[in-house]
Design brief:
The protein folds into 2 domains: 78 residues, Orthogonal Bundle (Methyltransferase, Methionine Synthase (B12-binding Domains), Chain A, domain 1); 125 residues, Rossmann fold, CATH 3.40.50. It is an alpha/beta fold and 228 residues long. It is 53% helix and 11% strand.
């Protein structure tokens, strides 16, 4: 699945490729940052390095699902990924420029929920794909989403929630966007542990997924990959 639209194909074996993802998979921050620096010095496409880091993060997620890693390890992996992306961001801008934005995405965790791990990962991946991301943070009321749509005119609004009780807030936010006359102007995607509840309640969203990779791919399709 293509996540960083500019990335070169990941080559098999040797060099930085594989080393970076393997290091992140075992939570070895010094090795991750060293591999990033090695890749930069070798002239590797920085978006390829972001993809390598993402693959390592994905491996950590699989181990978490199996019960081999716990929440602390998941949070640590997310921070290492963030640190790697921070090192690569200047190189991405240098190589591809900051002006060629694909467009704007507004994201936030809905009211009543303060979880932001998944949201932050999606934010970083969107930014690596050239999107301007307006991150509203956590515990975001419906009115704030409406205000952000009016102010920033995004094509996509992403809502994140982990707690099943927050499904009511997702519904209220969608209704608020509709009542403001803005629903036809945006695509709405929902992510996080709440997705099952969203689907059961048949809320009027355009897509819902627990998979960050899938979410990025859907958003790329909405904007049109040819804009890259």
């Amino acid at each position: 699945m293509e996540l960083c639209a500019h990335q070169a194909d990941v080559e098999e074996g040797g060099g930085t490729v594989g080393k970076l993802s393997d290091a992140l998979a075992v939570l070895d921050k010094p090795a991750v940052l060293a591999a990033v620096q090695e890749g930069i010095e070798a002239g590797t496409d920085p978006l390829q390095l972001v993809e390598e880091a993402r693959l390592g993060l994905e491996a950590v997620g699989r181990e978490f699902d199996k019960g081999n890693y716990f929440l602390m390890e998941l949070l640590r992996a997310a921070q290492i990924f963030k640190d790697a992306v921070a090192l690569l961001t200047p190189k991405i801008k240098e190589r591809y420029g900051s002006a060629a934005s694909r467009g704007t995405v507004v994201i936030g965790t809905v009211a009543g929920d303060v979880h932001d791990l998944g949201k932050n990962i999606v934010r970083d991946l969107l930014q690596c794909n050239g999107f301007e991301v307006i991150d509203l943070g956590v515990d975001v009321p419906a009115a704030r989403f409406v205000e952000a749509i009016r102010q920033h005119k995004p094509k996509v609004v992403g809502m994140s929630a982990l707690l099943s009780a927050a499904v009511t807030q997702v519904g209220r936010t969608v209704e608020a966007i509709e009542e403001a006359g803005l629903r036809d102007e945006v695509k709405i995607i929902v992510g996080g542990g709440i997705v099952g509840e969203v689907k059961r309640h048949t809320l009027r969203v355009d897509h819902a997924t627990t998979n960050a990779n899938e979410g990025i791919s859907v958003i790329l399709d909405w904007f049109g990959r040819e804009q890259a």
